[in-house]
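Recall the central idea of this unit: under ordinary conditions, the amino acid sequence of a chain determines the structure it adopts. In this exercise we apply that idea directly, starting from the sequence alone.
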Amino acid sequence: MSLLEDFEKMIRKEVDGSVFILRGSPGTGKTSFILTVLKDLLSQNKKCLFVTTQARPEEVRVKLKKWLGVNCDKKEKEGVLKIISFSPASSINLDLNELNFNLSIALKEFKPQALFFDSLTSLLMYNDPQIVTRLMQRLVMKLRDLGASGFFVVDSGSVGEKTVELVSYFLDGILEVKIEDSSPNPIRLFRVFSIKFGHSSLEWTPFTISEKRFEFHKREF
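Accordingly, the structure predicted from this sequence is:
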């Protein structure tokens, strides 16, 4: 069973058309989660738009190839994958209207079935959260018009909880990851903190990150 299937079983609904924010401290597995979901959707030939403020497109391609075995060049030529990068340095002085314009063009022309945004952290750190929230609202409306799903990553250690909740207001759910430090074997945990029209639980589900994927420990959801 794929991670996507496990996740849909966990929330008791299909991901299609739902938009989530995934929060957690740095290094807890947020990017691993969205990249694994990305791989699962690409295996179904669904069109995916990956937006990064954390790395150059080449770095994303290398990670997907090395870690998950995804041939990005092939997927991009087939028209099912598009990667857009806003470098970390430019996020400090990034014109959010320009960002909104560029993403709007990409959504209109590419028409993805899923958007992955890694991450909102720098935008929220260097811009007014109210302005970022309005940007999010416009993006979510465009995703809903397309019937597309969305996953937005944010570092909870760098951005306050109230800010995350403000940005999450127009979304369908909040997902969380954390590491429970029980050295020498730290435990990685995931939960659906809140969700509209689905199932949420404050119960944490253990997961592992192997060479191939993010994977929940086997359990009944």
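Strands lie at 19-24, 48-52, 81-85, 114-118, 149-155, 173-180, 187-195, 205-209, 214-216.
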